[in-house]
Design a protein that fits this description.
Order of helices and strands: HHHHHHHHHHH
Helix content: over 70%
Structural class: mainly alpha
Low-confidence stretches: 221-227
Number of strands: 0
Distance between the termini: 27 Å
Mean pLDDT: 73
Strand content: under 5%
Radius of gyration: 28 Å
Shape: flat
Length: 250
């Protein structure tokens, strides 16, 4: 993973101007990778945190006009496609006739007939409906159980992943797991954001301990394996050079 990738990605994700453009997580990672690649060759090894952050902010400000322009062009292309491939012609025709009193009367009459037919059919009181009700109730119960199992498996999988990262981190790990147990995530992306924050916090904690001559927190082998895995995943999600060029040329 590029040296400044995570810092650039975090700055992109927290920027209100970037959020307003509506880029996906994958697209942001692609942009962050390109910016980080440029910064790696420009920022000196002995640069302070303030200097690094300033360089990151300046780099993002520099590409902002291009990102805004690409989104404008993209939205224009989508709109042009929709106009060239209309799908609601019939609905539009119906809307044109909506104010016609005759049409309104006909629609009300047809709706009344449908309701009357439905009532005559007996609804849930038909023999078939009565026979199927126990089966449908059972299927509903099974679906609820499956949903609960999936939810439980997802929570356990996320917790196992976090526990592996926090193994041997003492109080730091205990506090983080306690916070995790009180949290809920709407999707995998939200959990991954949290996981990346924990990784970053752990790295900062270990850097402070190293500065004080103390041992790092966590199991070395497990932590290294997790870092490699994260790096591999980021490489998979990052856009290719061609994709970034295409985005810039829109």
């Amino acid at each position: 993973m590029k040296k400044h990738f995570r810092k650039v990605l975090e700055a992109l994700k927290t920027s209100k101007d970037i959020k307003a453009l509506g880029f996906s997580r994958r697209e942001l990672k692609g942009v962050a990778a390109k910016i980080a690649d440029k910064l790696d060759s420009e920022i000196k090894e002995d640069a302070t945190d303030e200097e690094i952050q300033e360089a990151v902010d300046d780099a993002i400000d520099a590409v902002m006009p291009f990102l805004q322009f690409s989104q404008v062009v993209s939205e224009r292309r989508v709109q042009s496609y929709k106009e060239a491939h209309p799908t609601n012609d019939e609905a539009d025709d119906d809307d044109d006739d909506a104010d016609d009193p005759v049409n309104q009367s006909n629609r009300k009459s047809q709706a009344s007939k449908k309701v009357k037919t439905s009532e005559d059919d007996g609804g849930d009181d038909t023999p078939l409906a009565k026979a199927l009700k126990p089966l449908m109730d059972k299927l509903d119960g099974m679906q609820s159980e499956i949903t609960a199992l999936k939810s439980g498996n997802t929570a356990n999988s996320r917790k196992s992943k976090l526990e592996k990262l926090l193994k041997g981190t003492g109080k730091f790990g205990e506090r983080t797991l306690k916070a995790f147990n009180r949290m809920s995530f709407k999707d995998d992306d939200e959990f991954e954001d949290f996981f990346e924050e924990v990784e970053s916090d752990l790295e900062s904690e270990n850097q402070e301990r190293a500065n004080q001559g103390l041992e790092k927190l966590g199991a070395p082998d497990a932590f290294a394996g997790q870092a490699n895995k994260r790096g591999s995943k980021n490489d998979e999600e990052i856009m290719s050079d061609d994709e970034v060029k295409e985005l810039a040329e829109l």
